[in-house]
Amino acid sequence: MVEVFKTNVTSNHQARVVVSLIQYHFEGFRANFDLQDCDHILRIEVASHRKIEVDPVVNLLRDLGVRAEVLPDDTDDLTALLGRLNDKITLA
């Protein structure tokens, strides 16, 4: 399972601190940043098929002074679009 967040983290030092704290507080989570991306991406992955609970992560980040919002998964958007198209075809 993977979650991707848009953040306001801009420095490598801050990114290292955030990654360390995420991995300390959430067993099995692997985190990394892409600070070159315009959204300063934080990517969190868990090796198992466990679901990543977003609220505790966002709360930890907020306590650290980091703003974060989950970026939508393109496959979720595609699934929703296909569902709406299927509904329209069925109604026609």
Helix-strand blueprint:
Layout: E1 2-7, H1 12-25, E2 29-34, E3 41-46, H2 54-63, E4 68-70, H3 74-91
Report on the architecture of this protein.
By secondary structure, the chain is α+β, with helices and mostly antiparallel strands. The chain has one domain: Alpha-Beta Plaits. It contains three helices and four strands, in the order E-H-E-E-H-E-H. A hairpin with a 6-residue loop joins strand 2 (29-34) and strand 3. 16% of the residues are buried.
Q: Which features does this protein show?
A:
alpha+beta; globular; about 90 residues; Alpha-Beta Plaits; about 45% helix; 4-stranded antiparallel β-sheet
Uncertain segments are: none
Q: Strand pairing plus helix content: what structural class?
A: alpha+beta
The CATH first-level class comes to: Alpha Beta
Gyration radius, rounded: 16 Å
> What is the third-level CATH name, the topology?
Alpha-Beta Plaits
* Helicity, as a percent range: 40-55%
The rough form would be described as globular
Q: Beta fraction of the residues?
A: 15-25%
Largest sheet descriptor? 4 strands, antiparallel
| Helical stretch tally | 3
Helices and strands, in order, run as EHEEHEH
